[in-house]
Amino acid sequence: xxxxxxxxxxxxxxxxxxxxxxxxxxxxxxxxxxxxxxxxxxxxxxxx
Amino acid sequence: xxxxxxxxxxxxxxxxxxxxxxxxxxxxxxxxxxxxxxxxxxxxxxxxxxxxxxxxxxxxxxxxxxxxxxxxxxxxxxxxxxxxxxxxxxxxxxxxxxxxxxxxxxxxxxxxxxxxxxxxxxxxxxxxxxxxxxxxxxxxxxxxxxxxxxxxxxxxxxxxxxxxxxxxxxxxxxxxxxxxxxxxxxxxx
Amino acid sequence: xxxxxxxxxxxxxxxxxxxxxxxxxxxxxxxxxxxxxxxxxxxxxxxxxxxxxxxxxxxxxxxxxxxxxxxxxxxxxxxxxxxxxxxxxxxxxxxxxxxxxxxxxxxxxxxxxxxxxxxxxxxxxxxxxxxxxxxxxxxxxxxxxx
Lengths: 48, 189, 146
What we know:
The complex is a heterotrimer of chains A (48), B (189) and C (146). The relative contact order of chain A is 0.07. Chain A has one helix and one strand. Helices cover 56% and strands 8% of the residues of chain A. By secondary structure, chain A is mainly α. Chain B has 189 residues and is of the alpha+beta class. Chain B folds into two domains: 84 residues, SH3 type barrels (Roll); 88 residues, no CATH class. In chain B, strand 13 and strand 14 form a beta hairpin. Chain B is elongated and about 55 Å long. The two termini of chain B are 32 Å apart. By secondary structure, chain C is mainly beta. Chain C folds into two domains: 84 residues, SH3 type barrels (Roll); 56 residues, SH3 type barrels (Roll). In chain C, 3% of the residues lie in helices and 45% in strands. Chains in contact: A-B, B-C. Chains B and C meet through strand 2 and strand 6 of B and strand 13 and strand 14 of C.
């Protein structure tokens, strides 16, 4: 292969990687609305 | 005047110190299932490649929750980790409410939660939910009185089903009417 | 004086009478709000920084420095330093301490003798210098006025 075809392959890999990582990280940045139940009691004794 | 904000509006807001540096952006809103009050936020990094920061910001360390940013005094306002946000999430009565069903106490399904409505103020509380009804309509539903939340469903008093608003400007009225109604109901009992 | 008017003024070394660079921007600290550094455009790439305390005089046509050797390359300045380019307010969003955006800093009006900042200017309004709380990498923070 010509030298520049490797360049294109490398670029394609980088682009594909970015196309995978960017939406994945965007998903990991987006959050939720989380309800919290009872706070854990000090000492962690049995529940009444 | 009480102002209402959608939880999705608070999420992604930058967290900025009074010195003008950004520490991250809001990821999760964590609230007390029994009172609805916001306990803390969790943070994510900013930028295309950033992920979650695994650090919590307790409400008492928030300087101000504004329309364009969450202000904190300095970096020490953040917790070292996100333990404050994690505990209770796996206990009964905890979990992410986005996507769960909202059901009246007598067993009528009103829809699924798509967003929460936060009443801002000295201590912000989750004052209601945006739900998508089975007819694919989005309405805002105020909650008051005995609300039980779990990662599975949100249980609301039957009267809740009758008070809804199309947008945030009408939400305050709907919330007030529900409150009055629940008070009357409890007097009658 | 306005910082936009100061931009491009030559900075001359009093010892050699040479021009060491031209004014490009400034860095600012609060309480009291003042200019602490001048960012210079010099020959070659990158910026250099001159501390306000090393400025001999800020004249109408040129800025005079006694010791041009005190001019530092911006790359050698760490983030905590008040002369770090992160503390340049121009072009940044103004946030009040209650989290409201008031626009973008377009200009700074300052006293050319003391370096004290009289006003931060946006397209819509002027914000007095004594309302400044901080200039950081993300925004300029000011007190929430009434």
